[in-house]
Amino acid sequence: MPEHNEGQAHTASHKAAPQPSGPEGFWLTDNDFALRLQKATLIWLELADNMIDDGFTLFEALTGAHAHAPGLLDLPAEYGPIVEAEAATQILRSVDVHVDSYASPATRQALQSLGDMPAGRQQQILRTAARRYASTDQPTQRITPVRPASPPLEPGPRRAR
Question: Where are the alpha helices (DSSP H) in 54-104?
């Protein structure tokens, strides 16, 4: 009679949930994946609002999308930071702060000033950001790829070394 290992039986009966699928090709040009990122950002903005209700700071509420991406956001974990960056960008836009990059010093300064505000004001800003994002970036709309104005460039002659 084969030896029964309880650990193996337990592992076999509790299979890991399947991970959400990633993009087809480059993530910024995959329409369906872009729509999933938009939906995830809206969910994250709404969750952050609720987290502030529970006593979290703005930064604590915005952090951790990678950990929750597979379960709550229907995204592979590695795309969670993109959701955080997009949510931060939308928050800044909701207070008319437009920055060139989510990684710029201006972005960090603007977010820090929001983080220093009272929780009630932070919630108002989050709600405004979520409302604006939902009205302008509907997950049901299709993203149309931009077509180049002229034909693609042909590769130039290669230089011999």
Answer: 58-62, 65-68, 80-94
